[in-house]
Each structure stands twice: as C-alpha cells, then as structure tokens.
Amino acid sequence: LSLEDVSSVSQSKRVTLARSMIAYYGHYHAKYSFNDISAVVAREPASISKTLRRHLKCSKDNGEVKQVMSAIEKRLSLSDLDKWV
Questions:
Q1: Helix (H) or strand (E) holding 10
Q2: How far apart are CA 52 and CA 49, in angstroms?
Q3: Which secondary structure element, helix H or strand E, spans residue 82, and what is its range?
C-alpha cells in the first residue's frame, strides 16, 4: 500500500490492517508517539490509540493478522541482521 492509501479515508480491511500494523510497529518497536504516527496516517492520536488496542485484541485471535505480523517480524529481524553482516 502507498502512503496515500493509509492516510486516505478508506475503511477497507487491507487499509485498516495496514494502519494497525503501522501503529503497532511504530509505537512498540520504533518508539514513535501517537502524535507522530497520527501525522503519517492522517488520524487523531486518540484514534491511533483505539486502533492499537483493537489490533492487539484482534492479533491474539485472528490467524490472518498473526500471519502478517510473523512475516513482518521475520523481515525486520533479517534487516537487523543485514546491518551487522
């Protein structure tokens, strides 16, 4: 997805999942604030917080979300390895 997609008004499943992933990895892994993330996805910080809570609840029960997260985490760990090789 493009930056235009995730900052659009679209409520498609794919776009909302992308926003959730941006919020999760941006906040918990890259330590960005909700204000920082909201500027990227064109949402209010409170909306980002709500999206993140919903994502965390959903990720425990949703196989598709778990699969996407696993693929992202694998790519992140490989890119971390590339920095040191």
A1: none
A2: 5
A3: helix 63-84
